[in-house]
Fold these 2 entries.
Entry 1:
Amino acid sequence: MSTIHFIHPPGYKELTWNKKIEQAALPKRAALTLSQHTGAPSEPVVNVGDVVKTGFLIAKSKGFISSNLHASVSGKVMAIENHPHPVVGFFKAVVIESDGQDEKAFSSSGRDISGISREEITEIVREAGIVGLGGAAFPTSVKLNPPPGKKIDTLIINGAECEPFLTCDYRLMIEKPKEIIQGIYLIAKTLGVKEVIVGVEDNKLDAIEALGSALFMVKREECRVKIVKLKTRYPQGGEKQLIKVLLNHEVPSGGLPLDIGCVVNNIQTVFSIYEAVCFGKPLYERVITVSGDCLKEPRNLLVRVGTPIRDILEFCGLDTKSDAHKIVMGGPMTGVTQYDLDAPVIKGTSGILALSMDFIAKGRETDCIRCSRCIEACPAGLMPCMIGLAASNNRFDIAGPYDPFDCIECGSCSYVCPSRIDLVQLIKLTKVKLKKK
Ligand code: SF4
Ligand code: SF4
């Protein structure tokens, strides 16, 4: 990956650039799926009929790579049952009927954190169920607790938000810059790093300015925070790509950022760490962008985890009875098409898009014409056409040498392919097949 390849899809961010973050209505019923993070699903610690407050622990992490789950509304547990899931179809969920009171299970008054230790911060983050909010939903406490022998010297904060349509991180940067800087200092203290780099693309100059000003307003800590303006291009927000752009270091094939002394956290994850450490708030809500050309009112919303997609789309002016739309959870490049609008927002949901036929690839898939555009577009330096060819011929055994596990599933190859071959889906399938072997 000595040179990274990027593409420049249209951004469509102007639909929500100027939309301030608004609190979405509380859901009448919140369905909190037990699988909304990387790793083992969480284990319920409530029973049907229990009465819970907002922020109450309802399911515990089960293993090192797992996460706690908290009630996102106050009310009564009505069921623990299979429920539509936005990524895997169906999964067991704790369903809570809201009493409309939103009574909190935590005090939410600010606490003195001046003498807080690294261990205490990591434990608060673990207890609060915080996961990476850029989409991967990897448990954050694991990132804050590198294995013995792995020395972290650089913390990178991912403010690229390179996926088209999404502006939720941008809005957080301009609306909550001081809180984000405080969150950065907390993470830097936990990891013991002296060097922090915040990467923000140059289509968000006011976010760069807001964070820069906040640096002077927040009490300085021992580390140095540098805010770096990046060119706008896709997929710069991939961890490995961001590290290469900012440090010119390469994460080895099959390796992790911590193998080269880096930890990467997304802007919204930083904000949720600030809220958990300073106010004791578990992760039960997040900011998402709701956008697309089928909505009367695209918005940036603070949404409770477990809220049905249908409620959010209706709030933004979509007639959900019409079928001339494609509904996507996430962005258009990496998002997942939704077929059941009862599926809920999960911790990793960065956006919901309602798109017309204009945004859907037209025409039939045809044979590969060996144009190599997918190779030229791949930020991981792979040969997507070769993996796709092997997969479409059911020869997963010969796909291995083309390093499918280095694929970050950015979708650039599918986007540029003139034969409309859905390469990223073929690569995802290849990974599943090879893992099973
Ligand atoms: S989806 Fe994977 S193979 Fe395709 S361009 Fe992105 S990293 Fe490369
Ligand atoms: S971009 Fe499509 S047509 Fe071109 S080489 Fe890749 S798979 Fe084949």
Entry 2:
Amino acid sequence: MPGDALRWAEIDTTAMQHNAQVIKAGLRPETRLMAMVKSNGYGHGATIAARAALAGGATWLGVYTPDEALELRNAGIAEPILVAGWSPPSTHDALVSHGVDIAVFDVATLRDLATTARLRGRRARVHVKVDTGMGRLGVRPEAVDAMRQALRDEGTSIEVAGVFTHFADAESDLAFTKEQHARFLYAADVLRSNAAETLLHTAGSAAILNVAAAHHDMVRLGIALYGYVPRGTAADVALRIAMSVFARVVQLKTVSADETVGYGRTWRASTTRRVATVAIGYGQGVPRVLSNRGALVVGGNRCPIVGIVNMDQVTVDVSDSDGVTVGDAAMFFGESAGVRLGADEVADVAGTIPHEITCGVAASVPRLPREAADRANGGRPTAVP
Ligand SMILES: Cc1ncc(COP(=O)(O)O)c(C=O)c1O
């Protein structure tokens, strides 16, 4: 157990490295692997996730904000990085000087960037994002001619290092994905004529696993890096869960038949039950919607959440789990000692996706490499102190 922490997340870097390797092995050798480490590496820690992915064969990193890119550079990571969201003009100078690639999807941002690059005497590397049907960021296919013209006007201060798009439903709507792909190919043809080597990239985890024709020069690996196959994806890949979140049992009590537990008295014991209070709640990322629906792993078994999820704690019925004592580690999600309760399963119960569950683990929950947790525990990551 990591000191006297009441809650913590163990990050399994070998799992991320393995997942990157498994995904890379399914690509054509020339297709590059970009690891998406935005939102603090989907909650796992951006730098730790980036390093693990690079060790597993990724050669690019993807983030959403300029700050996230600079955080990686400041950590000493020298590999190519793409800021896939909008980079405000005030950030261009820092991004260009740190050699960070920038997504552009409007002519005004492109012109600002070109001005900065000229002032610096450098070339700014851009990836033009095309909106092929997602309806959020991107140049519409009908506007790519104007973008091409702007790229021509700016000349050598801009290098078109990539053209990319994002699919709206590569999990389950392959017909629409195909339509998006066709629009992308048209736009890429127009835009890439500006530069000799332009990487085309379209695929996140679902398309990586479902649509080999969309792999192109690079894929952008997100949730599968962290151990989860998107729902609706039939691919049979052996991924390993990278984050396991634990909290301690802080009290145990026997609740008699007909007694209630928690706010609003939403749970009533039908018979005498043993109830554990565990020190994790919605303040640390347990969705409140799991009240009376979800489960935690306590004593090696899934134990149902009873009553309402609180800000800092949750109550679980441990009657069917022998030998639970105060101080035991309960698992919110993850994998430990051969027991799996994935963020994907939690997400199913909560009506969301595993991305939201892993990203939702509060910054206040200390992350530590699983190797360190193992060492501190004499090889038993979730042992009782
Ligand atoms: C532009 C872009 N590429 C790739 C990804 C990775 O998607 P996934 O986590 O489904 O692999 C995302 C995730 O939101 C994204 O926004």
